Amino acid sequence: MQAASAATSAPAVPYRRREAALAAVVLVAIAVTGCTGSAPQPRAASVPSGAEADGGVDAVRSPSDEPGGTLRVVAGTPDSLDPAASYFPWVWNIMRLYTRTLVTYAAAPGEAGAQLVPDLATDTGVTTDGGRTWTYTLKPDQRFEDGQVITAQDVKYGIERSFASDVIVGGPTYVVDLLDDPANVYGGPYTDPDPNNLGLAGIETPDAHTLVFRLNRPYADFDHVMALPSSSPVPQAADTGADYGADPVSSGPYTIATVDPVLGIALERNPSWDRSSDSVRTALPDRIEIRTGLSGPDRDQRVVGGSADLDLMPAGVQEDLLPRIEADVGLRARVDRAPSGSVRMLALPQGVAPMDDEHCRRAVAYAVDRAGLVEQVGAEAASAASMLWPRGLPGSSPEGAAPVPVDGLAAARTELAACGRPDGFSTRIAAPNEQRPLQLAREVAADLARVGIDAQVTALDPATYYGAEIGRPPNVAAAGYGILLTAWTGDLPTPATYFPPLVSAVQPAGNANYAEIVHPALTDLVSTALSAPDPAAAASAWRDLDAALVEAAAYVPLLEDRVIVLAGERLRNAALHPAYGGYDLAVVGVRDAPG
Questions:
Q1: Which pLDDT tens digit goes with each residue over 82-140?
Q2: Does residue 584 contact residue 71 with C-beta atoms inside 8 Å?
């Protein structure tokens, strides 16, 4: 799970706070033709057309199989181009162009786009012991940009790099958490006593095309971990350690031609890429230019003016641009209004009285008017949430996790009487000092006042909000913050990266369990979901956990945010992707002529 703000230390299953990724799950489904080399062969899109407003949300915007041209992209500043050292989803989108992994996300519209499909491997992972051992087999004759054949040992070495935390800094550490042996800690390939620098015991490579992963515990969503760029192959001879991001070796359809601090990143076709082995990437443009380091207003103006085809950043357009979009029919047709995958919720910490009483917590939950919150922020900006689980995640329930009383105020007063405070109580609401969070916090306070709960809003520095402020339970208790406004999204389109921090062990610092709720039954539900034999069983366990947390009023879901994304005039074959926070670079194209 990730808060939509600054990072703190990781819990048992690592996660990083970041900008929310888009939950619209849409990709282009394209039939593959067998061809290699630099020139792509046309292929027919088999998805609905969408050349109007919201055309890239549940379909493909301006479908096209036309190859050629230069795709012009704008973005902020990347954290790293090293696949093991990046934690920005929009950078993972770039890496989709020059890294391939054992598995990746399906090229299909709708919820099916969150499903995993083979990439370098012949199939998704095979497990025969409940998710503790996973086996993958590589497709034959897949090559790096220099023509060298990709082997199982290259994949293992690429994964081993994440263990070298003194050299590789900033990327996800799921593989470290799942493969490391606490009794025999592996320090990465740079200090590996193995003569081949392949000493990680948790990965076996019996031959050049087979990988066997032996996890330290069952993990049903291991395929999602293998879809991360940090699980891509790296040839040892080309590894420059901390400097690898300056010139990473490509296993995908494009190679990095230049990296310039002012001009950004340029990618060109990889002649060693075999289209016949890649059922996901269409690689339509001949060249891709990514201008980095730009501010939000600058990016917006470039897309509006036509000098850029798309903005990679997941936050969408700036609010200042919205009136212009509303007044311009042409711009409105280029807009996609998409769920962000982020749920805004209240955490009610049990270490702060009277939130240690379940009835007092329920009084807060019942008194909040979600419809009123949507009215305040606007229906285009958010929708009401009745569960903690974003609707875009596969397996979520549109009906919500728990029933909402017809008369919320009456139910809240009943709960206040049950907790011995019929006239209400006083508490404090903590919120980041930003326009939207403060707007919501004040509206929640007004709702609570209707049943006698006096909740004073305290605005806190967004840069330290999740870490130094609400991430430290002693600070929360000392300040009397009985209500914490948070926003969450998962690292990946699976509940396995969303829910566990909600019920993780309470830490004195770097705490992610803001409700401070600890119960063996909840821990058991997490274990059941993580070790489930199939996705349906896992989804059932996650829904049970969601319902239990909402029923206990540990967390109170408020809204699911939406973002407004603007497509450039030349952009074709564009669809929003759940894992990367924007239009999928692997399948988009451009066309200079209208139509």
A1: 999 999 999 999 999 999 999 998 876 667 778 899 999 999 999 999 899 999 999 99
A2: no
In CATH terms, 31-100+252-334+567-595 corresponds, of 3.40.190.10, 3.40.630.30, 3.30.70.1350, 3.20.20.190, to: 3.40.190.10
Query: What are the angstrom distances between the C-alpha of 67 and each of 70, 284, 417, 567?
Result: 10, 4, 68, 18
Q: Cα separation of 411 and 419, whole Å?
A: 13
The string over 347-377, giving b where at least 16 C-beta atoms fall within 10 Å of a residue's C-beta and e elsewhere, is: bbbbebebbebbbbbbbbbbbbbbeebbebb
Q: Higher-confidence residue: 23 or 369?
A: 369
What confidence tens digit (pLDDT) does each residue in 270-325 have? 999 999 999 999 999 999 999 999 999 999 999 999 999 999 998 899 988 999 99
Q: Which two tokens stand for residue 135?
A: 């086996």
- How do beta strands 70-74 and 287-291 pair? parallel
Averaged pLDDT score across all residues of the chain: 88
β-pair partners for 70:
287
Q: Sign (positive/negative) of CA torsion 299, 305, 308, 314?
A: positive
- Three-class DSSP category at 359: helix
For residue 163, pLDDT beyond 60: yes
Instruction: State whether the Cα torsion 570-579-75-80 is positive or negative.
Output: negative
User: Which amino acid, one-letter code, is at 348?
Assistant: L
Residue with tokens 């006042």: 449
**pLDDT tens digits for 519-567?**
899 989 999 998 888 878 888 999 999 999 999 999 999 999 888 999 9
Domain extents for the chain? 31-100+252-334+567-595, 339-563
Question: Among 376, 314, 388, which residue's Cα sits nearest to residue 346?
Answer: 388
CA distance 159 to 497: 19
pLDDT of residue 488: 83
Distance CA 474, CA 283 (A): 52
Q: Where are the alpha helices (DSSP H) in 24-171?
A: 89-95, 152-160
Parallel, antiparallel, or unpaired for β 576-577 and 582-583?
antiparallel
Task: List Cβ neighbours of 16 (8 Å cut-off, separation of 6 or more).
Answer: 2, 7, 10, 87, 172, 491
Locate 532 and state its tokens. 């489930």
**At the fourth CATH level, which superfamily is domain 339-563?**
Dipeptide-binding Protein; Domain 3 (3.10.105.10)
Strands (E), 369-480: 382-384, 426-432, 454-460
Would you report the helix, strand and coil content of the chain in percent, each value rounded to 5?
30, 20, 50
Q: Is the pLDDT of residue 144 over 90?
A: yes
